[in-house]
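Revision sheet: structure tokens.
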Amino acid sequence: MFLLLLITITATFASDENSLSSESTEECPKNYISGRYDVCEAKCGEEVPYCIHVEIPWIKEECHCRADKGFVLTDDGDCIPRKDCAKRGSATR
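Predicted:
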């Protein structure tokens, strides 16, 4: 029963995905990652979180700072290389 419900929900969203794919999506800069991944952000001084790839068509794609590639989100919202955190005074090593 649960499997049938899951298949029905998936089919419904799959048909909606085709209409969403016609929207123009802006490509993320190299230090950002698409919102189709779980949040992979880390602020200066925080450990890099584990990132899991998730393909859920109804999640709006957004760009998130790529903590999985050594970037961190500063307190003022910039996505910078982790080595630059101390220079900006946002965290300690």
